[in-house]
Design brief:
This protein is an all-alpha fold. It has seven helices and no strands. The protein has three domains: about 70 residues; about 45 residues, no CATH class; about 35 residues, no CATH class. About 75% of the residues lie in helices and about 0% in strands.
Amino acid sequence: MSEATATIVVSVVLIALPLGWAVWMWLRRHSMRSLLRGVAAALVPVGLWLLGLTRLITAWIEQTIHWIRTARLDTTSWIGLAVAAVGVIGWLGAGYIEPVTRKQARQRRLERKRADAVSPAPAARPGSPRSAKAVKSSGNPDKAGFTDEDRDLMNLLKDRGID
């Protein structure tokens, strides 16, 4: 097959696939979003053809076919092929997982903050400013309602010039 014929075939396939997908999604969901995405995806190969880049894609496909025909796969190549296959399967499988909406993400963040607030503070290292005595007394507010932790924070802010 000549280079021009192969380029035309590749261009037609790269244009027809997204258009077919767009029509199928329109018939299935009546979604203008899917239809617009399909038409937009079909315009990319048209632009590549007009720029002359489709010849590069055609040459890449021909070189890949040549490599497949002539390659002798050793153990490392088979492992690489298996890893790539697992990656493709993982990518495609992830498409079946329900996406997280903004509302769900917000709810998860709030739940995580609540869980962090309820969980006890990590134990202090020996010799650190927050010794076991400071941790025990930090929960007992003084007459003004400030804990040791509050006072430490206020002192830190004063040291930095923040009142």
